[in-house]
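Quick one: Shikimate dehydrogenase (NADP(+)) from Methanosarcina baikalica, structure tokens please.
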Amino acid sequence: MKQVFGVFGDPIGHSLSPAMHNAAFSALGMDCIYHAFRVKPEKLEKAILGAEAMGFGGLNLTVPLKEKALKLDCIRPDPLAERIGAVNTVVFGKNGEITGYNTDGLGAKQALREAAVEIAGSKIVVAGAGGAARAIAFQLAANGAEITIINRTAERAVELAKDVSAIAAISENIRGRGLSGLKALLQDADVLINTTTLGMHPNTDTAITTAENLHPDLAVFDIVYNPLETRLLREAKAAGAKTVSGVLMLVYQGAEAFKLWTGIEPPVELMKKTVLEALQA
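--- reply ---
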């Protein structure tokens, strides 16, 4: 009998995690299958407990469930997920314990490294203040980056900056603010990371900023991966900036989750190839 894994989210139709993980399971000869399930936030606890009762091997959580999961009584977050304030990977223990992890930050870090983007000492602007933004800001601050978090609601950005400051080497290097003055901020930045859903399919003509606010020495990383080339990445190319695809983060955070569930190193290059083929189909 196949062991079932899955991703919960709302919406969820855009997810390429099933294709990516099923390719890995098949390549390794594992009798497993991975599905996407639409789960509304108010039903999340019931859905997780139902998956555990049915013997699921593990879960991923995506928008808008990552922060909600941390507050559930059924999940015991590991220290990193608790500090970040969001869970994107759920592991079911043999003794009935359900543990929540966060692999988003590690995925983003590996994506930047693959693109030869320096983290330590860089001035990084993170757009958004949700679960993915939290994970990325915590990870990159821990790796020595200077972080400015921007958000439509400035208060959320300031609150997240205060949380991240607690683990940063120099707390003054972590700031939160609204969207005003974005052009001047980006002119002095080394990296821009979009963690919002702007530009995600089907609303593909939106972006956090345009080419006139970008510059050739900037690296622009959009964690949105569907479409493969978002409007933000097109604007970055027009400005001569380096671009980093969200596919890389999807693959690397997925690989970390795979290892947590199975204890097995997944075929990362195959996972990447599968996602790219699906996006180009």
